[in-house]
Amino acid sequence: MSTGEDTGTLAEAEQRVLDRIDQARRRRPKVREERITLSHGAGGKATQTLIDAVFLDAFRNPLLEPLEDATRFTVEGARLALTTDSFVVSPLFFPGGNIGDLAVNGTVNDLAVAGARPLYLTAGFILEEGFPVADLNRIVRAMATAAARAGVQVVTGDTKVVQRGKADGCYVNTAGVGVLEHPGRLGVATVRPGDAVLVTGPIGEHGVTVMLARGELDLDADLSSDTAPLNGLVSDLLAAVPGVRALRDATRGGVATILNEVAKAAEVSVVVDEAAVPVGDPVRGAAELLGIDPLYVACEGRAVVVVDGDQAGEALSVLRAHPLGAGAAIIGRIAAEPPGLVLLNTAFGGTRIVDLLVGDPLPRIC
Amino acid sequence: MSTGEDTGTLAEAEQRVLDRIDQARRRRPKVREERITLSHGAGGKATQTLIDAVFLDAFRNPLLEPLEDATRFTVEGARLALTTDSFVVSPLFFPGGNIGDLAVNGTVNDLAVAGARPLYLTAGFILEEGFPVADLNRIVRAMATAAARAGVQVVTGDTKVVQRGKADGCYVNTAGVGVLEHPGRLGVATVRPGDAVLVTGPIGEHGVTVMLARGELDLDADLSSDTAPLNGLVSDLLAAVPGVRALRDATRGGVATILNEVAKAAEVSVVVDEAAVPVGDPVRGAAELLGIDPLYVACEGRAVVVVDGDQAGEALSVLRAHPLGAGAAIIGRIAAEPPGLVLLNTAFGGTRIVDLLVGDPLPRIC
């Protein structure tokens, strides 16, 4: 496949990429809707437009602009990463975890995939009047256990209470600070043709688990959330495999959204072999019933790894040697053309474009 | 006034203080209520019990334990401060500001009063389905303006959307990182008898403004929120006055809550002269109608300063020389006995105890 452009010299190619980025910036995206919809929170197209048109436009600065999960900067010689995430999952408790595990693991993972060792977390609670104190205790104890497992500390916090009907029991925000152990090494823009794409385990388990926990679907599956801290796994990988180019945890919007971000940021094509993507039977079955593609379903303990193609086998071995990477797989590769697109070679021999999500098939998953 | 204890030697006095702290720790407070009430978010007694019994008990670590607004630690030689706050103010827009200004100034101020220069902020939004995009734009632009005024950058963020009826338009969490410029210098536990207590300006304006903006009170006052970034004012003060012992911004629970924290942490008595406390006429009038004491009403741009008594005049001059400290005043002093109590010498010549707030007279103020 080709866009038909003359590929020319490397300098010309680079100039084309820069021109495209420049054009994208000048386009100044606009939110067409007058009111916020659930799609704006789904991690797909509407979310990206909202971020570009509202947040990036107002806050624009060099640290924010890469729009990575964690931002990286230096203070008094210390190279740090900083990230934040709010959690609004419904229900609050589900097989394999609760909002507390999610809130710790989510922020730990955002730091880990930025190449940082997570150190300190903040915790902000918005509680609805009437929320059971026993439930709060369960959530907070899950956070403490998750923090201990990940080797981080919750060092400061805040609690607000809103009137009955102004929240959904409990919302949790965490922010996290880590120390960059691999500065300048990772970034989706460094991805290049010939690289391999891996996932660290079977996908979609968290999202489908939460969906089933709502009881809206008459389906009983032996499934639990994959929520887990990935800092140990990522640390092993980065120590052993110098050719790792980019890491992302595949939360809201799933693996498909991450791959689209890679394709757009690096101006490359991502080619995925559907048959190679690890999907457990319960997830496959539930996804079929829900009419959704597992590639778009949130994980909370899985990362997408892009690595130099020559080191893909080594990366796979290192991942599989870790308990949280036992189900890792090579799912695709990076190509030059067509830039900005994710292509799926289907099990039936066809090829289709895996675009950014439009709408929100599974709201309030994380 | 005296507790009747034999004061004895300094070593014996210190031992008594340590014993009391130890006893308090062993008491293991318990939340008696089965469900969260608005009081748990008011910053008073119920909030303290919730923090001690639920959060501190689960997360206990040396950085969290002082329960300061910002925690302080060292990473790779850099001395940092970290803080977080969620904002749920209702209404979102009020004279003098909106939830966006509050969210930036609140976190900037928590860092400033910890002796840190605020650098980087995170922003987490929880939006209710149906929230007007134009309102979100106003809020975000207010945040950008407030950040520029305070000299900080919003460097990473997150947006979640919840269904209609699961929030109140827009909640904002900010976390902030700053570099400690006065490490080891400030802390409420360093306060000692003979110190002077100051406030940086007239109190209660934010809380009363928000209350009136709800329109529940048939009262028209020429009043606007005091929301402002205090980092410049605090920086001037700390540079000029070596004897500053402790700083706190008087938000939820107002000046009275801060003074109680000082009294308890330093095991001293705080004696306030009611006539010296700067309260504007509109706040005084509204507070009378509402049946509340301005000492308990939230400010969002005022700090309480405790300073060596010999340097109180100098501190007052430095504060008054700054536009945000023009209304500063010396409002009281620190005494040895009775430890842990705040006493108010009233305008009528009496003395009464100013205790921690029970209940929440003004919910959703910040």
From TrEMBL, chains A, B:
GO terms for biological process: protein maturation. Residues 192-338 form the PurM-like C-terminal domain. Signal peptide: none annotated. Residues 69-179 form the PurM-like N-terminal domain. Belongs to the HypE family. This is Hydrogenase expression/formation protein HypE. It comes from Amycolatopsis rhizosphaerae. The gene is hypE.
